[in-house]
Amino acid sequence: AELARLIVLENGKNLTEALADVAKGNETVEYACSLPQLSQGKIDVVSGGGITCRDRRDPLGVIASIVPFNFPFMVPHWTLPIALVAGNTIVLKPSEKVPLTMYRVVELLEEAGFPEGVVNLVNGAREAVEGLIDHPLVRAVTFVGSSPVAEIVSRRCRELNKRCTALGGAKNHLIALQDCDIEGTSSDVVVSYAGCAGQRCMAASVLLIVGDEEGTHQKALLQNVIEKAAKIQPGTEPGKMGPVIDDHSLKKILSYIERSEKEGATILLDGRSWMSEMASSKGNWIGPTIILHRNKADGAMNEEVFGPVLSVHHVSTWQEAIAIENANPFGNAAAIYTTNGGHAEWFLTRVRAAMLGVNIGIPVPREPFSFGGLYGTKSKYGDMDITGDGAIEFFTNRIKITSKWPVPSVPEYTMGLVKQQQDQKKVNGIVDHANFAGRM
Asked: Catalytic annotation on 180?
């Protein structure tokens, strides 16, 4: 509860979301505690003559973890527990916008008896990030944030031949088919795009409604989404929506709403009313906003807004929905709403994203499944995923050992070995030509 209150204070989430932030981080802690059983190496006899191969996982050393403002506890705990259990030390650089939560966590770790220097915290902005990346003792870097910065971090690490996973932004599409459950779909869409004030890389950004725009089912779905979003109240109590993180974010969100109006889109629900309603309250307030776009090329349909704004666009066919989703340069998440398993499978094999949902608008994988965007998109740069088995691979070096021991001179052993080799040749006549041990 103490950490959740800090998250509410510095981030602006409501209390329910803050408690979930802590709970999701603790999931990774629980997973990391099972790593001795999950990360065991392998050993096998690979050829005649008693040659074996085995592998083990060695820690990298010092890990730098650079995390964003939107989940002050959860995202640092994507890296912290697994990196530590794998045998590394870590230097954490929290967002300068939310420094309190992880400062308190480090205090708690010290109270729990963590040795000095195992978990370290550095505050700062660009200079701190560059210093961590360039430091010769830092062996690997994790980053979560915007796509432009993720690309810069990844390139800087590549120039130094350092391991890096850098997760960027997103433009997540929800596709609602004619057979979707209206009540469940509308509730899930609203939670997806307006939860946490839309400040999460897994939030819904575009809702594609398939079928006739004037169809009864399509109109009912959209109306339900509008009505449910309109009932959300401002505040940090459970069930309400908090402010966005700062004035810069607010101005960016407002610019996309204004730009959409100029491009000919229709504002179905205008969250700008919160600015006057909450004028006497501290915070950067913008309410849930829904925009109906006629043109798929509109800015808010294609660029990351990172706020409680849902772009709605009607499409006639499944193929049209897929074409729009595939055309976006991001590759974090996508979801399909349907009551037909065959319909869902058709879309799941065609959408261009790494984390997919069926009737789930925030398809965050839970341990042991790993979190990460799609390679080759603006959502992911660098190596592997940041949690789950991807993190085990990222935070360790896999060392491979091939061994052959001299044959003991004990007669009983050598006689048995010779007979065994003779019997094997009689059975299959196989000669291991790939075995170069001891011959040229």
From this structure: no
